[in-house]
Amino acid sequence: MSRKKLKLAFISNDMARKTTYKRRKKGIMKKVDELATLCGISACAVISNPFDSETEVWPNPEGVNKVMERFKNASVLNKSRNVNHESFMMQRIVKAQNELKMQREENYEKEITLSMFQFMQGQNLPSTVEEIKEIHKMIEKNIKEIENKLAALHCES
């Protein structure tokens, strides 16, 4: 049975916010415990309590210190495998920029191809020298592709 979508918003009622905090904190602690038990890993949780100055830790302060020390002493290779949010977002940005660049190049090539076909039909004459040069490059590229295909066909027969 699926749950309805949860609306994430600040809970303005103090009592409701405190009870929700306690309930969700308990749920997070349970999930961390399950993760550590089922996967056989060292895990910890540190939760800053907004209602008093205590910071709550799981399983205990010594366990948290042990896990944090192990993380701090991890090799550079392991640290690079543990990607943080900032580096993840930077990777996504670089990937999106590369995709955008490739799409722009593809669109430009399609525009030149369309201009070439329109020019060949006498519909739209190129207006600049640069446009003529680009059409010439496209024609040369197409001729080379045709020659390569013909050579491949002659090799097969």
UniProtKB/TrEMBL annotation:
A matching Pfam family: SRF-TF
Location in the cell: Nucleus
SUPFAM superfamilies: SRF-like (SSF55455)
A GO molecular-function descriptor: DNA-binding transcription factor activity, RNA polymerase II-specific
Transmembrane segments: none
GO CC field: nucleus
Key words of the record: Coiled coil, DNA-binding, Nucleus, Transcription, Transcription regulation
PROSITE patterns, sorted: MADS_BOX_2
Broad class of the protein's primary localization: nucleus
Coiled coil: 129-156
Protein's GO biological process: positive regulation of transcription by RNA polymerase II
Domain annotation MADS-box: ranges: 1-47
PANTHER family on file: MADS BOX PROTEIN, MADS-BOX TRANSCRIPTION FACTOR FAMILY PROTEIN
Protein name stated in the entry: MADS-box domain-containing protein
Organism: Phaseolus vulgaris
Upper lineage: Eukaryota, Viridiplantae, Streptophyta, Embryophyta, Tracheophyta
